Structure formats: C-alpha cells, structure tokens
Amino acid sequence: MFFTPRIETVGSVRDFLAESRKKEVNGESKFLPVMLSTAALSAYASTASAASIQDKIIHAFDPLIELVQALAYPVGFTMICAGFLVIMTGNRHKGLHIIKWAAIGFIGMQFAPGIMSILLEVGKSIGK
Q1: Is the pTM of the predicted complex or chain greater than 0.85?
Q2: DSSP codes joined into one string, the chain
Q3: Which DSSP state fits 27?
Q4: What percentage of the chain has pLDDT greater than the value 70?
C-alpha cells in the first residue's frame, strides 16, 4: 500500500506521565506539577475581569443560537405548508391557526437573541 500506519509503543500511560512530570535542570530532577496550584488559579481569577468572563460565556452559546435560528426556517416553512394543506382539506379555521402560530414562532426565534441581549443590558444596569 501507499500509506502504512506507523505504530510506536512507548510504554504504559503511568510511565509516560511519570517522565513528563520530571525535568532535568542543572543535573537535578525537578518536579513539574501538572495542575495549576490554587495560588496561581486565584491570581488568574483576580486579573480576569468579570465582564470578560461573562462575555466569553455568552459568546460560547453563539453556535447553538445560530443552529436554532437556522432550524427555525425549515420548521416554519413546513408548518406553513401544513397549514395550507389543512385549509385545502376544508378546515380553514385550523389551517389559519397553524399558519399564524408558525409565523409568530419563526419571528420569535429570529428576535430571541436580540431580546436576550436587551434583558442582559437591563440586568447589568440594575446590578450596578
């Protein structure tokens, strides 16, 4: 074959981690901690502002918001088509009801992030 997989055995995970924690400095073996100490963690927390952390959390949900907004179009289109089919079968009142709520739901899904940002700004102004 053109490409053959290369497999290299390095030992157990325990051996790998034991070697990665030690480092030779001037002939002496120094232990390098894997996790941050609580002092370093508290120093990081004090330098990071609450607003930047809040912005990072809010923007972490951007892909999910875009996905829900993108799914609102085909669902709304399907429901509007279903409403017209119900009208065609002779149940005009129920068909218009389905179309109305499909349109309201679609518009609501498109405006939901804007409404949430307004509520966030109101919450920030109240909290100060």
Answers
A1: no
A2: ------------HHHHHHHHHEEEETTEEEE--SSPPHHHHHHHHHHS-HHHHHHHHHHHTHHHHHHHHHHHHHHHHHHHHHHHHHHHTT-HHHHHHHHHHHHHHHHHHHHHHHHHHHHHHHHHHHH-
A3: T
A4: 62
